[in-house]
Amino acid sequence: MILVTGGAGFIGSNFVLDWLAQADEKVINLDALTYAGNLENLAAVDGDSRHVFIKGDIGDFDLVAKLLAEHQPRAIVNFAAESHVDRWLNQECRNNCRRQWHS
Ligand SMILES: NC(=O)c1ccc[n+]([C@@H]2O[C@H](COP(=O)([O-])OP(=O)(O)OC[C@H]3O[C@@H](n4cnc5c(N)ncnc54)[C@H](O)[C@@H]3O)[C@@H](O)[C@H]2O)c1
Questions:
Q1: pTM for this entry
Q2: Which residue has its alpha carbon closest to ligand 1 atom 42?
Q3: Whose CA is nearest to atom 10 of ligand 1?
Q4: How many Å lie between the centroid of ligand 1 and the Cα of residue 59?
Q5: CA 4 to CA 28: how far, in whole Å?
Q6: Residue 59 CA: which ligand 1 atom is closest?
Q7: Could you tell me which CATH number the domain at 2-102 has?
Q8: pLDDT tens digits, residue range 9-32?
Q9: Does residue 20 contact residue 50 with C-beta atoms inside 8 Å?
Q10: Using CA atoms, how far apart are residues 103 and 28, in angstroms rounded to an integer?
Q11: What are the structural domain ranges in the chain?
Q12: Does the Cβ of 53 fall within 6 Å of ligand 1?
């Protein structure tokens, strides 16, 4: 099992679809479904038991810790990001996430 973050976005959803087309290994897909995330990108795996979608923020320490303990993924592939630089600069740079992982 692997954990993919941002798996409802452009690159992440294509990764998930490609992964499930090639490997019989479960994917836990954690995505906050921001303006950029779209579950329709994942329509092809709707109902596929190998794909578990969880709506949530990678900055949510408790949620991520729970997912890691529960599923024990062998790898994490991160695509969760603000890929528009201007939008990222106008946010608080998501320091919340960095602060939590370093504490
Ligand atoms: N699109 C490209 O051509 C391209 C090329 C090379 C690298 N990349 C990189 O790949 C990554 C993904 O790019 P993309 O184009 O798929 O972006 P995207 O904006 O399409 O998707 C990002 C996804 O991350 C989710 N997300 C954002 N913040 C989150 C958070 N805090 N917690 C959980 N989910 C969150 C969004 O809901 C969305 O589904 C970025 O790091 C980008 O720089 C993209």
A1: 0.90
A2: 83
A3: 79
A4: 15
A5: 6
A6: 31
A7: 3.40.50.720
A8: 999 999 999 999 998 999 999 999
A9: yes
A10: 25
A11: 2-102
A12: no
Confidence of residue 47 (pLDDT cuts 50, 70, 90): very high
Whether 67 lines ligand 1, by a CB cut-off of 6 Å, is no
Query: What per-residue confidence (pLDDT) applies to 82?
Result: 81
Question: Quick one: three-class SS letters along the chain?
Answer: CEEEECCCCHHHHHHHHHHHHHCCCCEEEEECCCCCCCHHHHHHHCCCCCEEEEECCCCCHHHHHHHHHHHCCCEEEECCCCCCHHHHHHCCCCHHHHHHHHC
Nearest CA to ligand 1 atom 21: 9
Sorting pLDDT into bands at 50, 70 and 90, what band is 93?
low
Quote the ligand 1 centre to 19 CA distance (angstroms). Answer: 17
Ligand 1 in contact with 83 (CB < 6 A)? yes
